[in-house]
Amino acid sequence: MDKFIIEGGKKLEGRVRISGSKNAALPVLVSSLLADGWSTYHNIPDLADIRTIKKLLANHGAQMEGQGETLRINGGNIVSCEAPYDLVRTMRASVLVLGPLVARMGQARVSLPGGCAIGARPVNLHLKALEAMGAAIELKEGYVEAKAKRLQGATIYFDISTVGGTENILMAAALAKGITRLENAAKEPEVVNLAETLIAMGAKIKGAGTDVITIEGVDSLRPCEVSVIPDRIEAGTFMIAAAITGGDVILEGCNPEHLEALVMKLREAGIAINPVEGGLRVQGAPEIKSVDVKTLPYPGFPTDLQAQIMALMAVSRGASVITETIFENRFMHVAELRRLGASIAVDGHNAVVKGVKRLKGAPVMATDLRASASLVVAGLVAEGKTTLARVYHIDRGYQAIEKKLTALGANIRRVKG
Ligand code: UD1
């Protein structure tokens, strides 16, 4: 297993290009299963999770070809409706094939994703919605088995705003008979990116980006050519890394509109953020002010940046309360940040962070994707050497993060294990 070795204390300076969004690319690539023929996808990041979804799609019979950031997929000839445990286990988002397979093939057998480090993360809302659309659902031997001659449009109210649930049902409803209305739908930009992809395929969808989405089912969809949005979480991570090192970084190719909650918080903390030609400039301040943060569904502060902003608050002047409302067990990074000298107390959904003057390098361990990003961010400012083990977590969602950071002046290297 690879490790990162970080020598902290270097200011990040220069320009960094933001890659395509992992969380947008996954459902967009899955939507290839809905049409017969070759679709073209641009701005696809080179990540472990993307390789996993390609394996899964190939397992269903999709043909693929691609170079660099452009990928062409023909999902026309589906040979298997089963998503096996081995693939779903490594990546929860694999469950996104459920909706498209039932809609197109009338059946699917998808392994239940099970728990993960940041909480139970059930898929009950995906299943409830498919049932409301007429699918017969059974849970057998750890698999969801879903069958429907043709899904029927229905009105669905999501008890919790769910990104994956909204995406799964959007794809299913695109080929259902009649009108589906999703209430309390997720409003994340990744959902909008998927809806735009489906519209380019001939789907009739209105309201994506609001909490009510209406889909008028069609009999078939056609291939499309689309681009994946920039990764707002990667962008946010680099913004926080620039801020924590007191650096001066221009992010190229990010979409500032998707980052508003973070920009507000960073400005409150004293960081200067300004649009410049081709990007967003982040300039650190001599002193970071403490701010309170509460994670919420979009456009609220993203849970996927909670760990990283906690690293920033660990070296702020004052105390801040960070409240996690999306996942029940998303403070795994706290124990590791403490190893670097952070002062953090957790009480239920709240973490109280008392800023310290400096962090000190130590061996730490990545526990999940975003937790590992927070440890990299903290390592960049910690005095001396931080060794981060299990970086395969970070490789799931950040394209060449150590190379991008090195280009900005950080002292970080990968040691193959
Ligand atoms: C997606 C993102 C993930 C992000 C999360 C929240 C992808 C691949 N992943 O995950 O990075 O952290 O959104 O922004 O896009 N829930 C249920 N039942 C369900 C579905 C969800 O109880 O059927 C709960 C979850 O346990 C969680 C909350 O709803 O507490 C939100 O989860 P959801 O939005 O579905 O997250 P994901 O789509 O899994």
Please count the beta strands (DSSP E, at least 2 residues each): 24
Question: Uncertain segments of ≥5 residues (pLDDT<50)?
Answer: none
Q: Helix segment count?
A: 14
Principal-axis shape equals elongated
Mean pLDDT: 96
User: Strands of the biggest beta sheet: in what spatial order?
Assistant: 22-23-1-24
Most strands sheet? 4 strands, mixed
Classify the secondary structure makeup into a structural class: alpha/beta
Query: C-alpha Rg, in Å?
Result: 21 Å
Q: Assign a percent range to the helix content.
A: 25-40%
Bound molecules: uridine-diphosphate-N-acetylglucosamine
Strand content: 25-35%
Distance between the termini: 4 Å
Supply the key terms.
binds uridine-diphosphate-N-acetylglucosamine; 417 residues; 31% helix; alpha/beta; 25% strand
Polypeptide structure, described:
The protein is 31% helix and 25% strand. The protein is built from 14 helices and 24 strands. The chain binds uridine-diphosphate-N-acetylglucosamine. Uridine-diphosphate-N-acetylglucosamine binds at residues 23, 26, 92-93, 119, 121-126, 160, 162-165, 186, 190, 303-304, 326-327.
Itemize the secondary structure elements and their pairings.
Blueprint: E1 3-7, E2 13-17, H1 22-30, E3 38-42, H2 48-60, E4 63-67, E5 70-74, E6 82-83, H3 85-90, H4 98-105, E7 107-111, H5 124-132, E8 136-140, E9 143-147, E10 155-157, H6 163-174, E11 179-183, H7 189-200, E12 204-206, E13 212-216, E14 225-227, H8 232-244, E15 248-252, H9 260-268, E16 272-276, E17 279-283, E18 293-294, H10 306-313, E19 319-323, H11 332-339, E20 343-347, E21 350-354, E22 363-365, H12 369-381, E23 385-389, H13 392-395, H14 401-407, E24 411-415
Parallel strand pairs: 2-15, 3-14, 6-7, 10-11, 18-19, 22-23
Antiparallel strand pairs: 1-23, 1-24, 3-5, 4-5, 7-9, 8-9, 11-13, 12-13, 15-17, 16-17, 19-21, 20-21
Helix pairs in contact: 1-2, 1-7, 4-6, 5-6, 6-7, 8-10, 8-12, 10-12, 11-12
This protein binds uridine-diphosphate-N-acetylglucosamine.
